Amino acid sequence: MLRSSTVALTAACGKDQALDIPSNPAVEVYAASLGVSIANMTKKSDALYVQDLVVGTGADVVAGKTITVKYSGWLINGTPFDSGTLPNLAIGTGRVITGWDLGIPGMKVGGKRKLVIGSAVGYGRNGSGAIPANATMVFDVEVLSMQ
Predict the structure, then answer these.
(1) Looking at residue 19, what is its pLDDT?
(2) How far apart are the C-alpha atoms of 21 and 46, rounded to whole Å?
(3) pLDDT at residue 16, as a whole number
(4) What's the rounded Cα separation, in Å, for the pair 125 and 91?
(5) What's the pLDDT tens digit per position in 97-127?
(6) Has residue 48 got a pLDDT over 60?
(7) Which residues touch 77 (CB under 8 Å, ≥6 apart)?
(8) pLDDT at 13
(9) Span 16-35, pLDDT tens digits
(10) Dihedral angle at the C-alpha atoms of 127, 66, 78, 40, nearest 10 degrees?
(11) At a CB cut-off of 8 Å and minimum separation 6, what does 102 contact?
């Protein structure tokens, strides 16, 4: 009975909708090169985990402040998708993905943090460029300055 109900639901919703399930960082398998251990990270939500790699010595980053960050981003299989420096980033204002807006505040200038961002606070069911739909992403972020 469950099998036929699932088939009927899949047919009624359409293939894309039936597979539209947000990622769950807690159960993902991460490439060893990423150095992710969910058990050693702080859970901010079901879709966001953070780990301070270096605690900075500068001022605390708070939502609404403008910061400059250096970052690298990977898919969970270790494939890099982006890296660079972002100057004049207004954090906590909705100008970046929610995972950054929630995961960066609390850092100190000079600090480095690993963010594991599930699709619910990332790029969601649409993905973006090299980031597939419903993908979990891993970022290393360093706060260089705050204005």
Answers:
(1) 62
(2) 13
(3) 46
(4) 23
(5) 999 999 999 999 999 999 999 999 999 999 9
(6) yes
(7) 31
(8) 40
(9) 444 679 999 999 999 999 99
(10) -110
(11) 44, 45, 48, 121
Burial class (CB in 10 A: 0-12, 13-18, 19+), 50: buried
Task: Report the pLDDT value the prediction gives residue 20, as an integer from 0 to 100.
Answer: 79
Q: CB–CB of 108/55 below 8 Å? A: yes
Note the pTM of the prediction, 2 decimals. Answer: 0.87
**DSSP state, residue 134:** T
Task: Kindly tell me the burial class for residue 134, based on how many C-beta atoms sit within 10 Å of its own C-beta (0-12, 13-18, 19 or more).
Answer: buried
Enter the tokens of residue 111.
Answer: 């600090």
- Dist. CA 134–CA 39, nearest whole Å: 22
Residues 6+ apart with CB under 8 A from 95: 89
CA 110 to chain centre: 20
